[in-house]
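Saturday, quiet lab. Running sequence design on the C-alpha cells for the scaffold JK sent over.
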C-alpha cells in the first residue's frame, strides 16, 4: 500500500502539478500586487477614484462587482501578455527549429526513371 502511494507521488505529473500550483500562487500574488498597487492607482489618477466599492444600487453593492470585474480583466490581460503570448512565441520558434527540412528534390534521372516505371506498370 505504501509502495503504491510512493509510486503515485513520484510520478512526473504529480510533481509537475505541485510545482505549477506553487508557482501559480506566487505569480498570482505578483499579478494581484500589480493590479492593486500599480494599475488601480493609475486608473484612479485618470478617472478620479480607483476604488469603485462605494457605488451602490439600492442594497446591491455594485461597486464591489465592478472592482472584481476590473481586477479580473487586468489579471487576465497580464497573464495573457506576460505568460501566454511569450510561451506561444517560444513554441513557434521551437516548432520551426524542430521541423524536418523538406526532402531534396530528386535528380532529373530519378524523375525520368519513375515516369518510365509508371508507364511500364500501366502496360502490365
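Result came back. Writing it out in full:
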Amino acid at each position: 500500500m505504501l509502495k503504491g502511494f510512493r509510486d503515485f507521488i513520484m510520478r512526473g505529473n504529480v510533481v509537475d502539478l505541485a510545482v505549477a500550483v506553487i508557482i501559480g500562487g506566487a505569480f498570482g500574488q505578483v499579478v494581484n500586487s500589480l493590479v492593486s498597487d500599480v494599475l488601480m492607482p493609475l486608473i484612479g489618477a485618470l478617472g478620479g477614484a480607483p476604488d469603485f466599492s462605494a457605488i451602490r444600487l439600492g442594497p446591491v453593492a455594485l461597486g464591489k462587482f465592478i472592482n472584481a470585474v476590473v481586477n479580473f480583466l487586468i489579471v487576465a490581460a497580464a497573464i495573457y501578455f506576460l505568460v501566454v503570448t511569450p510561451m506561444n512565441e517560444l513554441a513557434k520558434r521551437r516548432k520551426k527549429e524542430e521541423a524536418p527540412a523538406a526532402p531534396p528534390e530528386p535528380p532529373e534521372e530519378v524523375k525520368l526513371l519513375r515516369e518510365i516505371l509508371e508507364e511500364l506498370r500501366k502496360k502490365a
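Notes for JK: The mean pLDDT is 82. The radius of gyration is 29 Å. Ask whether to fix the surface positions before the next round.
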